[in-house]
Write a structure and sequence with these properties.
It is a single chain. The protein has 19 helices and four strands. The protein is mainly alpha-helical. The protein folds into three domains: 32 residues, no CATH class; 150 residues, Helicase, Ruva Protein, domain 3; 130 residues, Cyclin A, domain 1. It has a four-stranded antiparallel β-sheet, with no helix packed on it. The chain starts with a strand and ends with a helix. It holds the Pfam family RabGAP-TBC.
Length: 333
């Protein structure tokens, strides 16, 4: 079940295969952040998927044109051993990096504005504090995160640093080196979510799109939200800006990102629709949320609705036929 464990008196410190720490006392295991699943696909299936993705990467220019096959493979999930190569290829970061060699090193060596340094420095130990990469201020995880975020403020001095970029960059660093993580962050900020991390706050528009999609696809949940004066901006802003890093179990999060890098922002909207449906889709669920505060609390604790069912959740997210894809494509893609 676990990667390794260390005994401290009546407690056991457990580190799972994803490098997250948990505390066990007796037979009780506390996985307070992500409800981490400690099992995965059968090894033979993993090897088959690795072989398919290695073939895709070896023939990238040809296979990239066959979008349907690419989407299918992303829906099945990219093997964890290959995300360091696949995500940058999918989002265009590899191409940007190849056309801007040594730029990250140059930005990394420059001194940033002190105001950004101070804000970034305060945020470092808030990102995944129970992951082995980010336990120590002097560890490679927090140092790498500082480098990536500081370099971004140098790359986009007018935009600077948005705190929602911290957990996004941290997840990237869990899967790839700092330079690749930087260019993936650039692509996310400029190409996938333009305006999300700037004063323009394009997310306001996408939140209104989410309202419309919920009205069309989940009318009972939509009416409940309207009845209790709950606007999507109240709960979905953090979902979308942080790419669900704070609201999904880690395995499910990685699977969502596989789809996101392949299909763009519409995946995030579709995840939001599924989560609202899971929280408020049934009459008995809505009865338990008698007011605005109760409804918001259930939506903020949404990770409880996605446990140990990555394949089921992803199948529910993609494809969701209907309005969300059409609306998102028309206004962004």
């Amino acid at each position: 079940m676990c990667h390794f464990s260390v005994i401290f008196g009546d407690y056991v410190l457990i580190v799972n295969k994803l490098a997250f720490y948990a505390i066990a006392e007796g037979n009780e295991i506390s996985t307070y952040l992500f409800f981490i699943r400690m099992v995965g696909p059968h090894p033979q299936l993993v090897r088959q998927r690795e072989a398919k993705w290695i073939n895709i990467m070896d023939q990238w220019q040809t296979i990239f044109l066959k979008k349907t096959n690419m989407v299918l493979q992303c829906q099945k999930g990219i093997p964890s051993s290959l995300r360091a190569r696949c995500w940058p290829l999918l989002c265009g970061a590899t191409n940007r990096m190849n056309h801007n060699k040594q730029l990250f090193q140059s930005l990394d060596s420059q001194s940033a504005l002190q105001k950004w340094v101070d804000i970034i420095d305060k945020d470092l130990d808030r990102q995944f504090p129970f992951h082995e990469m980010f336990l120590s201020k002097d560890g490679h995880g927090q140092q790498g995160l500082f480098r990536v975020l500081k370099a971004y403020t140098q790359y986009q001095p007018e935009e600077g640093y948005c705190q929602a970029q911290g957990p996004v960059a941290a997840v990237l660093l869990m899967n790839m080196p700092a330079e690749e993580a930087f260019w993936c962050l650039v692509q996310i900020s400029e190409y996938y979510l333009p305006g999300y991390y700037s004063p323009l706050l394009v997310i306001l528009f996408d939140a209104s799109v989410l309202t419309w999609v919920l009205k069309k696809t989940c009318p009972s949940a939509y009416k409940h939200l309207q009845r209790h004066a709950v606007e999507p901006l109240m709960f979905a802003t953090d979902w979308l800006m942080c790419l669900f890093t704070r609201h999904l179990p880690f395995n499910a999060l990685l699977r969502v990102w596989d789809l996101f890098f392949c299909n763009g922002v519409r995946v995030l909207l579709q995840v939001a629709v599924v989560l609202v449906r899971r929280v408020l889709g049934r009459a008995e669920q809505r009865k338990q949320c008698q007011g605005q505060m109760e409804t918001l609390q259930r939506l903020r604790d949404v990770r409880c609705e996605v446990q140990k069912e990555d394949d089921t959740f992803i199948a529910e997210v993609w494809p969701i036929h209907g309005h969300s894809s059409k609306v998102t494509v028309s206004h962004r893609w």
